[in-house]
Amino acid sequence: MKTYETLKVTQEGQVLTVRLHRPESKNAINMRMVYDLMDLVDVVTDASDVSVVVFRGSNGCFTSGIDLKDFSLDKPPDIYGLQKWENMCRQVEKLNKFTVAAVEGECIGGGVQLALLCDARIAEKKAVFQLNEVKLGFLPGMAVFRLAKYVGLGRAKNLILTGRRLKAEEALQWGLLDTVSEAVDFEDCVRTTVHRLLPFHPEALELSRRLLNECYAAEYEDFIGRFLAAQHRAITSEAFRQLIVEASKPKSAAKALAGQEGR
Hints:
The protein is α/β, with parallel strands linked by helices. The chain has two domains: about 5-195, 2-enoyl-CoA Hydratase, Chain A, domain 1, CATH 3.90.226; about 200-260, no CATH class. Helix content is about 50%, strand content about 15%. It has helices at about 30-45, 80-95, 110-115, 135, 145-150, 155-160, 170-175, 185-195, 200-215, 220-235, 240-250, 255-260; strands at about 5-10, 15-20, 50-55, 100-105, 105-110, 120-125, 130, 165, 180. The chain has a six-stranded mixed beta sheet with strand order 1-2-3-4-6-9, sandwiched between helices. A three-stranded mixed beta sheet has the order 5-7-8. Strand 3 (about 50-55), helix 2 and strand 4 (about 100-105) form a beta-alpha-beta unit. The chain is globular.
């Protein structure tokens, strides 16, 4: 795996861990990090030896959000960099691997957005979440599109418009997180979460995720057609054929007996 200026990337088996790593700025997200993440996603997409990507922070902090030092008073702000960030977010959201956000410490601004992109979201008990952009005078990216789907419109408004800090246990109650653990158990929590995701079939993952992302935006009559097309693609895949092959094999006597006793 490549090395990056703003990321620390390690691999253990099928699991790739990506740490946001700009300790001098509490892992603030600058354009160099955006480009590094874009390149990483391109590499990982074609990596047959990676099944799960875990996004983490460094030095007890996930990220302090956007690095405002990327903006200059010498020229008008340019939307181009923010568009690059949103394009990268969409790449992560569509990545053909399971994705996990493992949050320690502060998770501010773009960090919350990154967590929303992931298939699983876990945090240590002391973690805090905040979308403070509106209070600062700009918008919290496409969190305005994604957050309400997790927590409901009222709670999304509360979090985005007030910029208040949300503790991990409350984020769990709201549906922003799947699991919260004590700091001493956090590494075990990460491993357990990854273990539950494996094994998986990339095509079924892609299709299910796409349909879930579309479920709020289509009427049933339109959605059922998309679903049936996706289901047809799934059941004509090699993974489903192998499932049928296994199901058609005769059971051993022991398994057959066990099945009868379980009735």
